């Protein structure tokens, strides 16, 4: 029987012996430890998180942590499986809390971004009153001003198009529009700040 060399799989198959070998950097011992505990670690995490993809991610993080911190295991404080499962459970709970906090933030941002509800009846009444006021003020314009404003603002024509429709020079349309808009502003009581 040959003597075991460096890196040979240790003869131990229990978690304590494997964890001790892993603490010394033995990769093959970690492979055996992985095979021994990975399904149980995943199962524990899966019960906490209920999402397979996240459970796989957290289980991988836990196993990497076990590899890196195996030397910290103190057998006087408990069994190696209890130590590893404690790491797994803490990581799973941390992830669940982080997901809940993220969900809460998303929900609160969504709720804050909703428009403030308004009274549709009041909004409709206000709109009708404003339209009536505009109609009344349009009635106070000269016929030429009213035509130019109506063609531009209600029919969507540009000033050159209004000029063609009314068969008047562009400068005349601009003057009618300016004068008409000033009269509308005064009639509607709109303040213009410069």
Summarize the structure.
With 194 residues, this protein is mostly helical.
Notes on the structure:
The chain is built from eight helices and no strands. By secondary structure, it is mainly α. α3 crosses α4, α5 crosses α8 and α6 packs across α7. The protein is rod-shaped and about 100 Å long. The N terminus is likely disordered.
Q: How do the strands and helices of this protein lay out in sequence?
A:
Elements: H1 15-23, H2 27-49, H3 52-69, H4 80-113, H5 120-139, H6 143-154, H7 159-166, H8 170-188
Helix pairs in contact: 1-2, 2-3, 2-4, 3-4, 5-8, 6-7, 6-8, 7-8
State the low-pLDDT regions, or none.
1-12
| Measured distance between first and last alpha carbons | 100 Å
The number of helical runs is 8
Q: Summarize model confidence as the mean pLDDT.
A: 83
What is the number of beta strands? 0
String of helices and strands? HHHHHHHH
Main sheet specs: none
> How much of the polypeptide forms β-strand, as a percent range?
under 5%
- Counting helices, strands and paired strands, the structural category is mainly alpha
Radius of gyration: 39 Å
Helix content: over 70%
Could you say which overall geometry the principal axes of the C-alpha atoms support? rod-shaped
What are the defining features of this structure?
194 residues; rod-shaped; disordered N terminus
């Amino acid at each position: 029987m040959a003597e075991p060399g460096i890196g040979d799989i240790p003869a131990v198959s229990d978690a304590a012996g494997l964890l001790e070998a892993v603490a010394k950097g033995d990769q093959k011992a970690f492979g055996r430890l992985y095979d021994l505990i990975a399904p149980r670690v995943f199962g524990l995490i899966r019960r906490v998180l209920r999402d397979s993809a996240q459970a796989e991610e957290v289980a991988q993080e836990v196993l990497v942590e076990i590899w890196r911190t195996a030397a910290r295991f103190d057998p006087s404080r408990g069994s190696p499986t209890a130590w590893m499962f404690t790491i797994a459970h803490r990581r799973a709970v941390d992830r669940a809390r982080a997901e809940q906090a993220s969900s809460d933030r998303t929900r609160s941002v969504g709720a804050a971004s909703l428009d403030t509800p308004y009274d549709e009846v009041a909004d409709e009444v206000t709109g009708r009153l404003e339209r009536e006021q505009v109609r009344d003020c349009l009635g106070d314009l000269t016929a030429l001003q009213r035509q130019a404003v109506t063609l531009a603002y209600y029919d969507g024509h540009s000033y050159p198009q209004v000029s063609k429709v009314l068969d008047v020079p562009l400068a005349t349309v601009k003057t009618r529009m300016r004068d008409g808009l000033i009269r509308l502003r005064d009639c509607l009581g709109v303040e213009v700040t410069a």
